[in-house]
């Protein structure tokens, strides 16, 4: 047994059932550190944009290099999400949750020293490597934090707690934009601006110290006594009872270690197809349109579209917040399937109605941003629910990495598509991507509201 695996779950001394107040405080703490991690993800991705001009002037790099530096985190996410998922399924949620935040602290801190010392390679390559490492940490946050939160959350609150994480990502992105511009106006060096994430990361690292291991992961490793001790101490009565039922006979079963190949076996291929495909189709059109909001809206006669672009982000935040609040009341399918069809229609109308008034086009784009962000909230919920414990981290990581392909394709191909195919065709292509996602969800999206994880993980395993 590895050293990481052998230490996971050792903080189980308090085996007696704790008070409801203690369990509520723990759930609040766990939610806060997960939401904080997603806020940090958004902050790191958002802080680089406003200072790219300063970086380019200071480091004397061309447009290709500044594009690579800005996209370095996306490349890192593609690597970090599946690798982090594999590691958290093998060694445990608890140690990897702390190690991942440690990587955030290290990479953030290194940004202060870009091109200031003599121990590093070319400054541009150095910054690219650092941003790549930060992307690995962000990818790991998806595949480590989400399974941990899923496995501790009460079934009645699971949807809104996981949905809150995506709200935090949007808020972090916008806060970074505001902070960057405020510090730039004050004449602060760009290294300090992008390195400001170190303060957030260090605080979250300290807040994660002492968190317990996931009882459900311990069950998969045959460590029933440790699992029940933690469940009774930290989880509400109903969820602890569910863990108890899931643990029956676990000490007589072989220890299961998740592998990537298990994502495509007869039990899990539907969950893999659904989560990866749904996530890909949700983010591809949005990343493209939101990233180039000024350019897109200008094509429809709305000037530079700055205020309209801000409106797209504001409506997206409202869409995520509204969905997160309603998930555990209305259910998953009703908030994911119909809204995808609405977005298909909106994008198709924008593409086909070439002579539409500017106000009509803007209204449709704002509506798309609202509904798309709403069902994108489910990308933070479904992976943790439909994959079984032994591959929950790997499955979440694979879906997150696959979605980054869509985000990258949408972001990099839209300017080319507008220039060579025209805006109407580009919007129809976006509608086609949304159509694939809607059809896939119509077929496979399960209703998991209020069910235990043992029940939700079996919904697509037939």
TrEMBL record:
<feature type="transmembrane region" description="Helical">
    <location>
        <begin position="97"/>
        <end position="121"/>
    </location>
</feature>
<feature type="transmembrane region" description="Helical">
    <location>
        <begin position="64"/>
        <end position="85"/>
    </location>
</feature>
<dbReference type="GO" id="GO:0005886">
    <property type="term" value="C:plasma membrane"/>
</dbReference>
<feature type="transmembrane region" description="Helical">
    <location>
        <begin position="161"/>
        <end position="184"/>
    </location>
</feature>
<feature type="domain" description="Major facilitator superfamily (MFS) profile">
    <location>
        <begin position="30"/>
        <end position="449"/>
    </location>
</feature>
<feature type="transmembrane region" description="Helical">
    <location>
        <begin position="26"/>
        <end position="52"/>
    </location>
</feature>
<dbReference type="GO" id="GO:0022857">
    <property type="term" value="F:transmembrane transporter activity"/>
</dbReference>
<feature type="transmembrane region" description="Helical">
    <location>
        <begin position="425"/>
        <end position="445"/>
    </location>
</feature>
<feature type="transmembrane region" description="Helical">
    <location>
        <begin position="271"/>
        <end position="293"/>
    </location>
</feature>
<feature type="transmembrane region" description="Helical">
    <location>
        <begin position="305"/>
        <end position="327"/>
    </location>
</feature>
<keyword id="KW-0472">Membrane</keyword>
<comment type="similarity">
    <text>Belongs to the major facilitator superfamily. Sugar transporter (TC 2.A.1.1) family.</text>
</comment>
<keyword id="KW-0812">Transmembrane</keyword>
<dbReference type="InterPro" id="IPR036259">
    <property type="entry name" value="MFS_trans_sf"/>
</dbReference>
<dbReference type="InterPro" id="IPR050814">
    <property type="entry name" value="Myo-inositol_Transporter"/>
</dbReference>
<keyword id="KW-1133">Transmembrane helix</keyword>
<dbReference type="InterPro" id="IPR005829">
    <property type="entry name" value="Sugar_transporter_CS"/>
</dbReference>
<dbReference type="InterPro" id="IPR020846">
    <property type="entry name" value="MFS_dom"/>
</dbReference>
<keyword id="KW-0813">Transport</keyword>
<feature type="transmembrane region" description="Helical">
    <location>
        <begin position="127"/>
        <end position="149"/>
    </location>
</feature>
<feature type="transmembrane region" description="Helical">
    <location>
        <begin position="190"/>
        <end position="211"/>
    </location>
</feature>
<dbReference type="InterPro" id="IPR005828">
    <property type="entry name" value="MFS_sugar_transport-like"/>
</dbReference>
<dbReference type="Pfam" id="PF00083">
    <property type="entry name" value="Sugar_tr"/>
</dbReference>
<protein>
    <submittedName>
        <fullName>MFS transporter</fullName>
    </submittedName>
</protein>
